[in-house]
């Protein structure tokens, strides 16, 4: 009996060591997204800042580039966070919303509707950048199942080594530097970019064979509305003011009709760039596809007034504990801006 | 219970590594299909130079574009370049070595395709020039030759869009 126990514990020790080794190897080969392709680590940074957000913004790159929570705070004392990622598809947005509501109940969720034009997964790397760093939950499982492309496997999300084993000969200093360490690369989800690339010529506005959004997109937008309603959260729809890809008037009409049907506010900021004060000669870092930080601050100030005056978002600048946290973050944000510009 | 779970985890981990190994082929290898030649596709001639979807974009042989825009790639991860030559817009992606054309879009109603189709022409003209071997969906007529396609958008019985495309597998 003693001998059997010895064998069992020896085997167990071997297994544990194997699991530990596997875990460490997986951690090594999985991209860190800390210096290169930082978009891949953005969603997970929320977990360190969850709670106390009156507004949560959800959506694709238009959200994390164009909305600055620090400017929302600076101008109207609004607490917020951006849960955005590159090419975030609407089913991913839904599960991110569902996950967020496990951590807090904001007063409002703002969803950027650009992704309504994508009714199929776009690329596996984009899936990875949205999904890989999320904490495991039923929402992550459902997101994987909804997002997987034909060449993907669920197992590769559970065991990332299946996907990234070929990175063994592509490891960089970043993989070692951030083996155990993670840093915030965003400011409450806003990816700071002060570069300027003026808008010039744009691709032709091509007529489409169909302007109808896919059925799956409508299903998830309905689910989003229902989930917000059940949780007492106001859903607000927005379209960020990008010059390209074009937000056809036929797209706008469909969203406007949905918003009216469900008594939701919908702000199409592509139609009021002048009122916002945007100048695409200086307020964009990629020729008009995304706003740079200067443009994001203009939009954020404009939207902050709307959120405060028309949606009742409170000014928390008089609350000492919140103000202390945000003012410290604002100081780092302003320093980072100076650092990028100089 | 705890030990059983740990043992199960170890087994799962070991099984997962098995997925890394290749599997033995179960069917004999077949002869590969002959590669489609881009020159057999729907080319477009611009200032005497024929540009083919799927082919390398030889900018040094073409006139100076009126404008160039970089946009997120539809073809792969990365950036596409959209060249506006006034009468046509050519979109290409960089494959690491060359810029590969995947769209030649006619902008000008006075510029025909190589077979003489103009924006504004009707279905009868399309069929007389290109035949009837096309697919039609939501007003989009598509002729295919291998990976090359000619996509024509029909609205109110007139062609409103002409795009020479390369379809990626």
Topology summary:
The complex is a heterodimer of chains A (342) and B (169).
Chain A (H helix, E strand, L loop, with lengths): L1 H28 L25 E5 L1 H6 L2 H8 L3 E5 L5 H14 L4 E5 L11 H8 L6 H10 L6 H5 L2 H4 L8 H5 L37 H16 L3 E6 L9 H13 L3 E4 L4 H4 L16 H19 L8 H22 L1
Parallel strand pairs in A: 1-2, 1-3, 3-4, 4-5
Chain B lengths: L1 H17 L25 E3 L2 E3 L15 E6 L6 E6 L3 E7 L4 E8 L16 H8 L4 E3 L2 E6 L2 E8 L2 E9 L3
Antiparallel strand pairs in B: 1-2, 3-4, 4-5, 5-6, 6-10, 7-8, 8-9, 9-10
Salient structural properties:
heterodimer; A: 342 residues; 14 helices; 47% helix; B: 169 residues; 8-stranded antiparallel β-sheet
Entry summary:
With 342 residues, chain A is an alpha/beta fold.
What does this molecule look like?
The complex is a heterodimer of chains A (342) and B (169). The termini of chain A are far apart. In chain A, strands 2-1-3-4-5 form a five-stranded parallel beta sheet, with helices on both faces. Chain A has 342 residues and is α/β, with parallel strands linked by helices. Chain A has helices at residues 2-29, 61-66, 69-76, 90-103, 124-131, 138-147, 154-158, 161-164, 173-177, 215-230, 249-261, 273-276, 293-311, 320-341; strands at 55-59, 80-84, 108-112, 234-239, 265-268. Helix content of chain A is 47%, strand content 7%. Helices cover 15% and strands 35% of the residues of chain B. Chain B has helices spanning 2-18, 123-130; strands at residues 44-46, 49-51, 67-72, 79-84, 88-94, 99-106, 135-137, 140-145, 148-155, 158-166. Chain B has an eight-stranded antiparallel beta sheet, with no helix packed on it. Chain B is globular. Classes of the chains: A alpha/beta (342), B alpha+beta (169). Chains A and B meet through helix 1 of A and helix 1, strand 3 and strand 10 of B.
Q: Estimate the helix proportion of chain A, in percent.
A: 40-55%
Summarize model confidence as the mean pLDDT of chain A.
Answer: 94
The largest sheet of chain A is: 5 strands, parallel
What topology, given as strand order, has the largest sheet of chain B? Answer: 3-4-5-6-10-9-8-7
Structural class of chain B: alpha+beta
Fraction of residues in β-strands of chain A: 5-15%
Low-confidence stretches of chain B: 18-26
The oligomerization state is heterodimer
Order of strands side by side in the largest beta sheet of chain A?
2-1-3-4-5
For the terminal residues of chain A, how far apart are their CA atoms? 72 Å
Query: SS-based structural class of chain A?
Result: alpha/beta
Largest interface: A-B, 31 and 34 residues
Q: What series of H and E elements makes up the topology of chain A?
A: HEHHEHEHHHHHHEHEHHH
Distance between the first and last residues' Cα of chain B:
49 Å
Number of helices of chain B: 2
Main sheet of chain B, how many strands, which sense, barrel?
8 strands, antiparallel
Q: What is the succession of H and E elements of chain B?
A: HEEEEEEHEEEE
| Percentage of residues in DSSP E strands of chain B | 25-35%
Morphology call of chain B: globular
Q: Spans of chain A of 5+ residues with little confidence (pLDDT < 50)? A: none
């Amino acid at each position: 009996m003693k001998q059997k126990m010895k064998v069992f514990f020896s085997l167990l020790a071997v297994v544990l060591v194997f699991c530990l080794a596997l875990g460490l190897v997986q951690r090594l080969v999985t991209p860190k997204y800390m210096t290169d392709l930082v978009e891949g680590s953005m969603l997970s940074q929320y977990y360190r800042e969850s709670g106390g957000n009156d507004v949560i913004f959800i959506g694709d790159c238009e959200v994390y580039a164009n909305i600055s929570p620090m400017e929302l705070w600076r101008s109207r004392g609004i607490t917020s966070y951006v849960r955005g990622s590159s090419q975030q598809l609407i089913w991913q947005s839904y599960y991110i919303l569902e996950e967020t509501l496990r951590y807090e109940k904001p007063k409002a969720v703002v969803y950027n509707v650009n992704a309504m034009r994508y009714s199929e997964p776009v690329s596996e790397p984009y899936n990875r950048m949205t999904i890989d760093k999320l904490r495991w939950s039923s929402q992550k499982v459902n997101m994987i199942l909804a997002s997987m492309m034909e060449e993907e496997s669920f197992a590769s999300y559970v065991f990332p080594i299946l996907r990234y084993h070929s990175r063994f000969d592509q490891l960089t200093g970043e993989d070692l530097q951030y083996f155990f360490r993670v840093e915030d690369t965003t400011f409450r989800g806003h990816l700071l970019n002060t570069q300027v690339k003026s808008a010039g010529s744009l691709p032709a506005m091509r007529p489409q064979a169909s302007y109808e959004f896919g059925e799956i997109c409508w299903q998830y937008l309905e689910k989003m509305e229902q989930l917000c309603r059940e949780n007492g959260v106001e859903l607000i729809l927005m379209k960020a003011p990008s010059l390209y890809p074009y937000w056809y008037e036929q797209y706008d009409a469909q969203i406007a009709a949905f918003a009216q049907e469900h008594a939701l506010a919908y702000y199409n900021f592509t139609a009021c760039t002048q009122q916002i004060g945007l100048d695409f000669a200086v307020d964009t870092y990629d020729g008009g596809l995304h706003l740079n930080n200067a443009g994001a601050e203009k939009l954020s100030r404009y939207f902050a007034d709307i959120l405060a005056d028309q949606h009742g978002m409170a000014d928390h600048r008089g609350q000492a504990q919140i103000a202390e946290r945000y003012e410290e973050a604002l100081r780092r944000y302003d320093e980072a801006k100076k650092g990028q510009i100089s | 219970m705890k030990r059983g779970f740990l043992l199960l985890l170890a087994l799962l981990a070991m099984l997962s590594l098995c997925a890394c190994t290749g599997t033995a082929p179960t069917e004999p290898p077949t002869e590969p299909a002959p590669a489609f030649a881009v020159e057999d596709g729907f080319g477009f001639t611009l200032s005497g130079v024929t540009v083919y979807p799927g082919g390398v974009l030889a900018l040094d042989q073409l006139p100076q574009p009126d404008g160039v825009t970089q946009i997120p790639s539809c073809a792969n991860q990365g950036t596409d370049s959209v060249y506006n030559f006034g009468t046509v817009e050519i979109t290409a992606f960089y494959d690491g070595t060359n810029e590969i054309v995947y769209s030649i879009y006619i902008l000008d109603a006075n510029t025909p395709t190589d077979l003489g189709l103009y924006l504004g022409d009707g279905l009868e003209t399309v069929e007389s020039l290109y035949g009837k071997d096309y697919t039609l969906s939501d007003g989009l007529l598509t002729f295919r030759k291998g990976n090359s396609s000619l996509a024509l958008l029909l609205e109110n019985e007139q062609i409103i869009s002409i795009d020479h495309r390369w379809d990626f597998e």
